[in-house]
Amino acid sequence: MTTSGENDTGKRIPAIEAAGINIGFNGVPVLHDVDFTLEEGEVHALVGMNGAGKSTLVKILNGFYRKDSGSVRVFGKQQDYDSPQGANRAGIAMVYQDLSLAPSLTVAQNIYLMRPFRSGLLLDDRRAAREALALFDRMGIEPIDPHARVEEVSPGQAQLVEIAKALSLDAKILILDEPTASLSNVEIGILFATVERLKKGGISIVYITHYLKDVFRICDRVTILRDGQHILTSQVADLTLDEMIDRMLGGESREGAAWTRHRAAPDDKPLLEARDIATDGVEHASFTIYPGQIVGLAGLLGSGRTEITRAIYGLDRLRAGEILVAGKPVAIRDSRTALNNGISLVPEDRRRQGLVLDFSIADNMVLPILRRLSGLVFIDRGRSAEVVRRYFDHLDVKATDPGQQVRLLSGGNQQKVVVGKFLACEPSILLLDDPTFGIDIHAKRAIMRIVKDFAAQGNGVLFISSELHEIAAFCDVVHVVRRRRLEEGMRNDGLTEDDLLAMVQ
After folding, report:
1. Is residue 266 part of a domain?
2. In the structure, what pLDDT confidence band is assigned to residue 318 with cuts at 50, 70 and 90?
3. 288 in the same domain as 245
């Protein structure tokens, strides 16, 4: 493996020096003469909107894609690897947002999956366990049981296991892709402390995130990409959050970050009422949504916030309580009953729960309303195309046409398709479970404008977000969810992210 050091002039050699990187797919340029330098022992943020080229650049650095032109040096040595294994040999390992761990294997077996220890012809699990504990000590974290199956550990522990797996390959460079996306605040703190310790140990880290405040907490420098081009590399300390957003958006309007509050009139009748509902995942939750109102649920991961939407949508059986739609009690036993009662759900995991990735944009959008679009025998293609075009244009989906496969879209555009899919059901109540998760600022604000317009038409919204500042900025009424219980709602008269953070702990 290549090692770090100094050149003949005594200057430190960069961990990665990529110059003039170009790549295109199917004749469409994606990266245009991009330069990127990672210094030894630094945490370097790579940010930009979805489709800016971040993932493409790091996949080139990790050997997943082969560049069309340009050069990559790792600790001063020219590299031309064409696989992740080649990148590993050069000292680079990538920790993907969708972790590559095998749930049924133990923590130690996952860490040493690529380099198993053997005793004769048999795997030496005892040595793997000892070495795993030594890695955890090097990372400065509380030891994770090396004999536990990965499916038994928390998301934060799984993220740390993935980092340990990368370090077991003798990696000197780590690429972390959205590492905090599925973590609680406590787990994020542990991860950041681990990153700091690794940095002090000489590990160089490329840090990809949509959570821009994380950049100011953990990163030394930042590189901004836009439309496949290098826009800026700067010390983080020399930028403000607003400046970073402006450079990412390229001067596009940033209006819409704050919203006018809606107040229910005294004579308004509720669109939706949950009266003391309880499931296996939530206890005694009560709330009301009025026409034009956006109600937020603020809570940490695992607090029970998702379980509330699942109960309303009929995915989890009610053990107690009742649900009323337009003042009438309804028995919602499944998603079809929910849709028939005017309730749509944009689920938490768009790729697994919201989309059929191998289907086109058009097929995904009309999937829930096929019965409505069907004649006696066949689907009315004209009506179907009209519905698709309406939401494709309204949501400004960035794609060649509605026939493009959803799998090929950026995360933000995939989420727009999910939102369009459930708006096409023409609901009066929209349940949104973390709809802005893992997407860029531009896509977030586009989706939030659409949701605000939906509410302004007299509909109701139940909104969950992992980013508490979005709930503070966006919602008219806020309920805090803690330990599977929903607290009484409060009118949003200037709530801040810090207010909500103190409440949800």
Report:
1. no
2. very high
3. no
Q: Total domain count for the chain?
A: 2
172 and 284 housed in the same domain: no
What is the predicted pLDDT for the residue at 311?
Answer: 94
Same domain for 289 and 222, yes or no, is: no
Q: Are residues 280 and 240 in the same domain?
A: no
Name which residue leads in pLDDT, 279 or 2: 279
Residue 407 has pLDDT above 90, yes or no: no
Task: Report yes or no on 9 lying in a domain.
Answer: no
Percentage, residues of the chain above pLDDT 70 = 94
Task: Classify each residue of 170-199 as buried b or exposed e, where b means 16 or more C-beta atoms within 10 Å of its C-beta.
Answer: ebbbbbbbbbbbbbbeebbebbbebbeebb
CA atoms within 13 Å, Cβ hemisphere of 194: 27
| Sequence-distant (≥ 6) Cβ neighbours of residue 206 within 8 angstroms | 16, 38, 44, 46, 58, 61, 173, 174, 175, 176
* Helices first, then strands: H and E counts in the chain: 17, 23
- 210 plus 356 within the same structural domain: no
Closest to 28 (Cα-Cα) out of 49, 47, 56: 56
Q: Is the pTM of this model over 0.70?
A: no
Same-domain pairing of 136 and 283: no
Report the CATH number that the domain containing residue 335 is assigned in CATH. 3.40.50.300
Residue 10 burial (10 A CB sphere; 0-12, 13-18, 19+)? exposed
Judgement on whether residues 334 and 379 belong to the same structural domain of the protein:
yes
- In-domain check, residue 262: no
Give Cα 318 distance to the centre of its chain: 29
CB 56 within 8 A of CB 47: no
Reported as a single tens digit per residue, the pLDDT across 164-183 is 998 888 899 999 988 887 67
Query: How many Å apart are CA 351 and CA 356, to the nearest integer?
Result: 7
- Count CB atoms within 10 A of the CB of residue 200: 10
Token digits for 43? 């945490």
**CA 464 – CA 349 distance, rounded (Å):** 13
* pLDDT higher than 70, residue 81: yes
- What pLDDT shows up at residue 178? 84
Where a domain ends, among 215, 249, 283? 249
State yes or no: pLDDT of 142 exceeds 50. yes
> What is the chain's mean pLDDT, rounded?
87
Model confidence at 431, in pLDDT bands (50, 70, 90)? very high
User: What is the rounded distance in angstroms from the CA atom of residue 26 to the CA atom of residue 3?
Assistant: 37
Contact call for residues 99 and 113 (beta carbons, < 8 A) = no
Domain of 123 in residue numbering reads as: 16-249
**Cα 448 from Cα 253, distance rounded (Å):** 14
Same domain, 167 and 24: yes
Most confident of 68-72, 139-143, 470-474: 68-72
Q: Tell me, yes or no, whether 255 lies in a domain.
A: no
